[in-house]
Amino acid sequence: MFAAVLDTSVLWPSLQRDFLLSLAVEGAYRPMWSTVILDELAHHEAKKLVSRGSAVDDAELAAQRLIGQMSQSFDDALILGWEPLEGTYGLPDPDDEHVVAAAEMGSAEVIVTENLKDFPTAKLPALIRAVPAREFAYDTVRQHLTQGSLAVIALCERSGRQGPKLSVSDLLTILDERYKMTATAELLSMAPGLRDILH
């Protein structure tokens, strides 16, 4: 199965994370990450929740609960043994070396990140490329349209537990306007499983 390392930068935005992971649940690809990515995500998630008014202890508990849910849902996503490769790529920011090391150790084909400048092609192993979330989502949905439709429906059905209840139309609008996944939203709007719901 096609494998992709998801950088913290694409996991931090909540709904984008839910969409990308919903695609993985439906079998469109295999997600991967390192302990460092999960630690960074927990830190930023807690910080985000505090900025929205949560108490520090509550925010940290919620962040750890998120990491636990991700780890349980994708028990083969955590890449181990990447540490010897860290520091061998010469990236602009040495703090990003763990991402490439995990990708190489896990035989991932893609690193999904919003920080493309930190992952120059010339510094990456030959079989690995870095792409933004919107490009990854489009390529994944284009190749797995049925799974993409199922991911949208499942995400909408789960919505409302925390935050507003989302219709398919709501979700596609958010993917388009908030996350710049315009091509993906357009593709999904024409998918057989969603077209009937929307029209």
Question: Can you tag this structure with a few keywords?
Answer:
199 residues, Rossmann fold, 2 domains, 4-stranded parallel sheet, 10 helices
Task: Provide a descriptive summary of the structure in words.
With 199 residues, the chain is of the alpha/beta class. It has two domains: 130 residues, Rossmann fold (3-Layer(aba) Sandwich), CATH 3.40.50.1010; 61 residues, no CATH class. Strands 2-1-3-4 form a four-stranded parallel sheet. α8 packs antiparallel against α9.
Strand content: 5-15%
Runs in which pLDDT lies below 50 for 5 or more consecutive residues are: none
The ordered string of helix (H) and strand (E) elements is EHHEHHHEEHHHHH
If classified by CATH, what would the architecture of the largest domain be? 3-Layer(aba) Sandwich
Structural class by secondary-structure content: alpha/beta
- State the strand order across the main sheet: 2-1-3-4
Query: Percent of residues in helical segments?
Result: 55-70%
What is the tally of helical segments?
A: 10
Query: Please, what is the average pLDDT?
Result: 95
- CATH H-level name of the largest domain... which superfamily? 5'-nuclease
- How many whole angstroms does the radius of gyration measure? 17 Å
